[in-house]
Write a structure and sequence with these properties.
The complex is a heterodimer of chains A (about 120) and B (about 190). By secondary structure, chain A is mainly alpha-helical. Helix content of chain A is about 70%, strand content about 0%. The radius of gyration of chain A is 25 Å and the shape is flat. Helices cover about 35% and strands about 15% of the residues of chain B. Chain B has seven helices and six strands, in the order αβαββαβαβαααβ. In chain B, strands 2-1-3-4-5-6 form a six-stranded parallel beta sheet. In chain B, strand 3, helix 3 (about 80-85) and strand 4 (about 95-100) form a beta-alpha-beta unit. The N and C termini of chain B lie far apart (about 40 Å). The interface between A and B is medium-sized, with 15 and 23 residues.
Chain lengths: ~120, ~190
């Protein structure tokens, strides 16, 4: 096993410990607690009034604009900053991969510009 | 099906749980009228500092609550919501009725819209009389409830027995099912 993967072994142990502890606590609780489910109790909590509609609902497709801008400006930065700190290690391969990523996003930026989304108000 | 459901709980385990339950009560607050100001003073201010009793007055929903304080006037319009939120609390659950309005309708005893006591819709464990009661009175109600919980035989309560106290004398056991009143005195 490579050193890289061995570092991730900590995550596995951590996950296993979390599952074990949570399972133990929930198991003890289930073995002891009273269970009295009912129609009222299983109703969604809406501060005491009748819940309206389902929790699965459509959102406006027009909000895609915000998703687009978020990916272009925020998600891009999230990927570029870690890459920039280790740019020398990844060499030409990393540079070209990142350029492809940036060009793809640039496409979106041009689209947003054309739509006038970058203008304030 | 848990141990409590089956009506069988070992006494040491009951005592351990009782201690945990009485000193970590999550209080759901229903501030329905002016008594809520006094409740806020008891729960939110450093002067009365309810957390020293192990009471945590901050659950986000009735799903996490052990105790509910009904403080203020329950109207007939509000009553269904009060009932539903009580139903949504997990067992075991307790109710403190705070103030004359929640106890019996108080000054609105002949109003067309006021429920004459929250005990008409949900069972009450501790009554705190007063109009409004001082924060100290509410704290005493909580302490009385904690003492009761510490001596409570959960399994017996679940079997719906008449004696639900761990203390063996019949008189005290019988009293353990009757509601408490801060300051003593009969319910009537």
């Amino acid at each position: 096993m490579s050193l890289f993967l061995r570092d991730y072994l900590t995550v596995v142990w951590f996950g296993l410990a979390a599952i074990l502890v949570a399972g133990l606590l929930l198991g003890v609780a289930a073995a002891v607690r009273p269970s009295r489910p009912g129609k009222e109790k299983l109703t969604a909590y809406e501060s005491g009034v009748d819940p309206v509609g389902m929790s699965w609902s459509q959102s406006q497709i027009r909000y895609y604009v915000f998703a687009l801008l978020f990916v272009i400006f925020d998600v891009e930065a999230v990927f570029i900053f870690p890459w920039a700190t280790a740019m020398e290690r990844y060499g030409w391969f990393g540079l070209i991969a990142m350029l492809i990523f940036i060009v793809l996003l640039l496409d979106g930026l041009v689209y947003a510009w054309k739509r006038g989304l970058l203008r304030w108000v | 099906m848990g141990l409590v459901d089956r009506g069988r709980m070992p006494a040491p385990l009951t005592k351990l749980f009782n201690m945990g339950r009485s000193y970590s009560m999550w209080v759901y607050q229903w501030g329905l009228a002016c008594c809520a100001i006094e409740m806020g003073a008891a729960f939110g201010s450093p002067r009365y500092d309810v957390m020293r009793l192990g009471v945590i007055p901050l659950p986000a929903s009735p799903r996490q609550a052990d105790l509910v304080v009904v403080s203020g006037t329950v109207t007939d319009k509000m009553a269904p919501a009060v009932k539903r939120l009580y139903e949504q609390m997990p067992e075991p659950k307790y109710v403190i009725s705070m103030g004359s309005c929640a106890n019996c309708g108080g000054p609105y005893w002949d109003s067309y819209s006021v429920t004459k006591g929250v005990d008409q819709i949900i069972p009450v464990d501790v009554y705190v009389p007063g109009c409004p009661p001082r924060p100290e009175a509410l704290l005493e109600g909580i302490v009385l409830l904690q003492q009761r919980i510490k001596n409570e035989d959960m399994a017996a309560k679940w079997r719906n027995e008449e004696f639900t106290s761990l203390q063996m004398t019949a008189e005290r056991g019988r009293l353990a099912r009757e509601p408490l009143v801060v300051g003593g005195g009969p319910i009537e």
